[in-house]
Amino acid sequence: MQTAVGLISGGLDSCVAAYMAREDHNIEVKTGVTILYGQRHDREVSSAKRVCAALGINHVVLDVPLRDIIQRSSALLNPSEALPHDRAQSAMTARVPRSYVPGRNTIMLAIAQSIAEAYEYDHIITGFNAVDFSGYPDCRPIFVDAWNHLARYATKRGYENNAITLVAPIINMAKASVVYHGIRLGAPLGDTWSCYEGGALACGRCDSCIIRRNAFRENGKEDVIEYAV
Amino acid sequence: MQTAVGLISGGLDSCVAAYMAREDHNIEVKTGVTILYGQRHDREVSSAKRVCAALGINHVVLDVPLRDIIQRSSALLNPSEALPHDRAQSAMTARVPRSYVPGRNTIMLAIAQSIAEAYEYDHIITGFNAVDFSGYPDCRPIFVDAWNHLARYATKRGYENNAITLVAPIINMAKASVVYHGIRLGAPLGDTWSCYEGGALACGRCDSCIIRRNAFRENGKEDVIEYAV
Predict the structure, then answer these.
(1) Quick one: pLDDT at residue B89?
(2) What is the pTM of this model?
(3) Is A227 a member of any domain?
(4) Are strands A165-167 and A27-36 parallel, antiparallel or unpaired?
């Protein structure tokens, strides 16, 4: 069985991706990594911990202190900006949403690559998804391809023709499919957190809540988490 | 004039690269970034500060807490391992030196890319050098090419056909040429630090000291810094 480090955000996508890696791709996720980059709340961290506990794997939290430097560039990092409500429409408008954080996924992959090389894992598993999130440039299949090209030259492992490869099991799935596979595999979807707000309950109003809730309904179910409205 | 973020390590190469960018490539380095990844000493940080002061630019220090996670993988991060003396020979032996830090340059570039996008800079300037350091996979021209391919897909800027490009002005230069250009441009070489040890004076014995000192001698000069031996 091959091994991997998983980028576990605490959200639904990375959780289902890790379960699919193990159950469908025969890749054992050995370590889950949550990378903090100045998010407005750390509700995701406790969700990521629970997902890793359910997977029975080691969990590492790393803080990359980018907030002060790039705060002005993303609504997710800037407390003075209203939370974005443009993502649900982004597939149609082909704009990059305000919740885009400059170069974030490249930083996350670079750190995961270092961990994978140090621990001699074969892969990086991510929950990148290009469908509902298609406004994010660094979630696209072409970005994954370019990353895997880079990986051949970026590390000692690549130099030895044994590059660490990025696997994105759900990249081409609509959110309803992601939910379908999560339910099929018994993934702990109730432990995941998708809401942009950090409240006790998911707000039910932000783009992320709307997309998630609709995805459960497309599967003929109600979401397993509670919503404020 | 185009603009850039410069990766400023405190060493000689990144200092000369920044001066060459400004004087020879007409690229203004606006911000210098020093990334800490668990080095054994921070002598480099004070050198980097002095280089940025000489350039008259903003200096940012970022700490990526990788030490605990990848300590076992590199002699540079592991205090229980003797410092490496295999680099001067690496070009001949084609081995990756023990001082290689897994995936380090990819992390540095990823962070620099985020800063460049947030501040709307055009380029990243690095002192990557493939000649004396040819055992490092992530210093090679092919790595730079692969990075610039990735950059087209990794950011909003790339999505808008205005990718942030990596410029490595000294990548194909022998160290003697780097020193030559540093002297020609009046770069503050006396403020730079190359030694792997963190002593008051450069040790004069590690690979890095030997390569640097020889490079000055090939220019018919003695190094402007003092050595312990």
Answers:
(1) 45
(2) 0.90
(3) no
(4) unpaired
